Amino acid sequence: MHKHCAESDSTVEYCGIRELGTRFYMWVFGHPVVEEEELSVGEVEEKVYWAGDEGFRAGHSTIFNTITLNQAVLDPLDDRITNYVFLHEYGHTTVPWPLRMLFYAVWLTTVVGIFGAVFVVLTAIAEFLIGQSSLVAVAGRVVGTLIGAFLFGFVGYTFVRADELWADYVALQNLGVEEFKAIHEERESRDRDVSLLLKIHFWLSYPKPETVIRISEYRD
Ligand SMILES: [Zn+2]
Fold first, then answer.
1. What's the 130 CA to ligand 1 centre distance in angstroms?
2. d(CA 66, CA 63)
3. Quick one: which of 36, 114, 43, 84 has its CA closest to 206?
4. Domain boundary among 93, 123, 157
């Protein structure tokens, strides 16, 4: 279970490190924390670090297992959306720490691997253009690299999907099916005008709400 700060000396220290870490992390990524709040929705009570800036993310759970929310995105919206995003991010923080670290390692490897693949492909094409390699050799390298990148991406996104599925499952457990459905319908109509790249990312990363509902029905 999660620890409340100020329960004992050791948790105070533990919370202090998490707080400093969260603030530093958000600052490094350009979303400095502007406010802290103890948020409670239903049975769940957790500290939330609010960032104030623009950006597409409504919420995020950090490597310190803390929850951050975005004022610029969430303030204009219904409180129900904030509740959902809060519970979803809380869901991420309930994954055991070693598993989360494994998740980050896989995800980082995927990102580095895909950047590496782009580099290899561009180099191969450049070598062909300046006449240093034959077409067959270049084609072989490009195809091989693309297959590798695809496999990397597949493993990475499988981890992301499993993590997102779990987070949404936790949100559903706390909201109930009807509220969960209603919130997702509202969110989907809002996401209609995001960029194509974001749409692809959403499509690859997030499970369909119906899938989450089916899993919860199956488990109950
Ligand atoms: Zn998530």
1. 45
2. 7
3. 84
4. 93
pTM: 0.81
pLDDT interval class at 56 (50, 70, 90)? low
As beta bridge partners, residue 68 has 49, 60
**Cα(60) to centroid of ligand 1, in Å?**
7
Q: Are residues 29 and 84 in the same domain?
A: yes
Banded model confidence at residue 12, pLDDT cuts 50, 70, 90: low
E strand intervals along the chain:
33-41, 44-51, 59-61, 67-70
For the chain, the domain total comes to 2
Task: Find the 132 Cα to ligand 1 centroid distance in Å.
Answer: 46
C-alpha–C-alpha distance, residues 52 and 164, integer Å: 24
Q: What is the pLDDT of residues 137-162, one digit of tens each?
A: 889 989 999 998 888 888 888 888 99
Q: Are 7 and 55 part of one and the same domain? A: yes
Query: What is the average per-residue pLDDT within 6-29?
Result: 77
Give the number of other Cβ atoms within 10 Å of residue 58's Cβ.
20
207 and 108 in one domain?
A: yes
Phi-psi region of 30 (alpha: psi -120 to 50; beta: other; left: phi over 0): left
